Amino acid sequence: MAIRPQTKHIIAAAFEKILETKSFDEISVKDIVESCGASRTAFYHHFHDKYDLATWIHKQMIEDYIKNSPGLVISGSLICQCLQFMKEKQSFFTSIVKYKGQNSFHDFFYDFVLQKTIERIKQANPSEPVSGDFLHSIRFYLTGATYFTLNWVKNGMLESAEGMTRIMLDSLPAKLTPYFAITPLTAIPL
Question: Are residues 83 and 36 in the same domain?
């Protein structure tokens, strides 16, 4: 199979499809390549392993939402839309959240959300350094928010995306509120 730009997406789609019937731990690279018709060489050209693939899929999903989010601040509607998307892809996220070993989604999720939050804050106010107590506030809040989100996924996503967003925004430290557009939840399309 020739390596084409869409090969990455074909492999990812096959992986997501397999996750509907198998747990993350049960899936092998062989399962993925057989499902989509790619070679192992093509798989390893794009990904180190299935953990790298899962990370890439999530990163692509969230990057698409962030790219389409207007403004430099983090909005309640962006958070809610990301949670809704996670709910739409529930089998994928439930499967990858169960794994807690090396290259786990838990570690990636926190690091990714922290990085994107800091980027947005720096873009909104380039003259203010993101360090010291301010950085500690960001880390403290995001540790709780990501843990809360991962538990929501692990426990079946019973709370609505809107309800989760409301809890996260209500818990926001005062130091961070200028960087979050607190969208009235009634304005969030659900």
Answer: no
